[in-house]
Amino acid sequence: NILPKMKHFLWRTCKEFLAVNARLKSMKIREDARCSVCNAGDETLRHVFFECCQAKSMWAASDFKDIMTNIPAGPAIKMLQWVMEKIGPEMMENFTCIAWAIWTWRNKKTLGGEETNLQVLVQAFLKMLKDHQHYASRVLEDSAFKGLPSLDKWYPPPPGWLKINTDAATLRDVGVGLGWVARDHHGKIVEMGVKRTKVSWGAELAEVAAARVAIIHASKRGWSHVILESDAMGFIARLQSGSRGEAYIDVLLDDIRSLVPCFRSLMSSHVKRMGNTVAHLVARLSPLDGLDQIWSASFPSSIMLLADLDCQ
C-alpha cells in the first residue's frame, strides 16, 4: 500500500534503470563513475543508498540502522529482497520511502543545485506515505457523493487563475488549524495561510471554516479567477448543490456563497487526499503569534518540497 510514484521508483530500482554514474559510464555517457555527492567511491546503487555519507547518516538515525552493515552486495533486487526478509513487508514500505527520499534529495542537489535538508525531506515523504495509507483505507459509503467528480492528484489551474487548496486539522490541546495555499498555473505558491481557533468542531465543519477563511482572503486580495479545492467530499457536494439549512455549517456555506460576486470566476472542485497534501501540512503549522499567519514569501522548506512533488 504505497504511493504510485514510490512503486515506479521501486520498479526502476529493481530493474537498475536509475541513472547513477557507474551505469552512465558503462553506457559511455560519462567518463567518471565517482559519486557526485561525496566523491569517495563509484556511484553504484549500493553506494547511493547505503554507503554515501548523507545516506549513511540518514539510515543511522532510522529504525533500520541495525541491518545496514549486513546488506549483501549484488544486484539491487537481491539487496531489496534480503532487506524485506529481515524487516517484513510493512516495514519495507517505510524503508522504500526513505530510499525514495534519498534519491530525490540527490537529484535536487546534483541536478538542480538545491541544498535541501535530507532529514526534513525524509519526514515529509514518510508523512505523505502515512496519509496515503490512512485515507486509502477509508471507503466512502454515502451514495449521495458517488456522482461527484474527484481528481486523483493536484493539477495546476489554467493560466490567469489561482487554485486555493484548503484543509483543517484537529490539534490536541490547541483547537483547530485552518490552512490554505494558493498556487498559480506553474504550481508555484503565491500565498498561504493558517489560522488557529480554540473550538471543538467536527471534521466537516472545520473543513468549511478553512475554505471560508481562504475565500475571504482571496476576495480581499482582489483575485479574480479562483478555483477552490478541498478533499472534503461532503463539503464540496453541499457547496455545489446549493442546499440550504439553519445549522452553523450552513451559515458558513452561505458566507462563502455571498462572496461569489467578488470574483469574475469562482469554481470549486474535489480532490482526493493525496492531491491535498500541501494544504494538509499548512493546516498543522504553528502561527508566529499563535493565532494566524500569512506567507507571501519565504515559505517553509517542507511546504515547498511537497508543492514540488505535486508538479512532478
TrEMBL record:
Q: Where is the RNase H type-1 domain?
A: 165-284
Recorded hits in CDD domains, A to Z, give: RNase_H_like
Q: Which SUPFAM superfamilies match?
A: Ribonuclease H-like
GO MF, one term, reads: RNA-DNA hybrid ribonuclease activity
Q: Which InterPro entries match?
A: RNase_H-like_dom_plant, RNase_H-like_EbsB-rel, RNaseH-like_sf, RNaseH_domain, RNaseH_sf, RVT-Znf
Ranges for domain Reverse transcriptase zinc-binding: 2-59
Cite the PANTHER family for this sequence.
BNAC02G40300D PROTEIN, POLYNUCLEOTIDYL TRANSFERASE, RIBONUCLEASE H-LIKE SUPERFAMILY PROTEIN
> What protein is this chain from?
RNase H type-1 domain-containing protein
